Amino acid sequence: MTSGSCVLLGPSNRFAAALSHERVQLSRHAPMKSNSIIGCAALNLLLMCEAQGQASFELANHNSPLVDAPVFDAQSVPLAGTNYLAELWGAATPDSLAPCVLIDRGNSREIVPFLNAGYFIPTSSSVALSVPTVPPGGQAWLQVRAWDARLGATYEDAFARGLGGYGESPLFYAQGGNPFGQFPIPGPLVGLQSFNLRQVVPEPSAPLLLLVGLPLLFIRRRRGK
Known about the structure:
Elements: E1 2-3, E2 6-7, H1 11-52, E3 55-56, E4 62-63, E5 67-68, E6 71-72, E7 81-91, E8 98-99, E9 101-102, E10 108-109, E11 112-116, E12 119-120, E13 129-131, E14 139-148, H2 155-161, E15 166-168, E16 172-175, E17 195-196, H3 206-224
Parallel strand pairs: 6-17
Antiparallel strand pairs: 1-2, 3-13, 4-5, 7-8, 7-11, 7-14, 9-10, 9-13, 11-12, 14-15, 14-16
């Protein structure tokens, strides 16, 4: 039954219309609820990261006029080429240093080669090389470690061999950046000083070991008679 342009609905028709209206409203609000949930999750993740720390630093030993600290071998020759590697270590305290990590790359380490004249620069496009135990924008104890890549893929590998060919900068205390900020600029390594690698001591060859060992063996046999 109609009156002008209005339609008079019976009970069943009114129920159907109300149900249809509710479905329309749900479909309109569903994306908003979904976006709200995603936004909340992202915010919580950001707050968790900031609460755990993660001040960021630039892995470069030349940033004029703030940083200029080339690295040398044991003969004071500037390191150059892919045979030499460098890495930044840091922590909230000077006795708990650990490798800095790329928080936007699965907390992976950033190990870089030397270009020339004792200088290295980041090889990744990340600006989030961070000290996980220091708040964004906070200050951290830092140390650059370098080594001969022919003695190991990491500083720990070269150190464990005990043949030299590795070195560390003096500890320094520097201001980090905020990788979560609007302009995530990592802090330069202000306070970094130049240093030298230790002299490489070659492993003794088999003939040399034999030459040293034979007299000792002869002496032991004579004493045993």
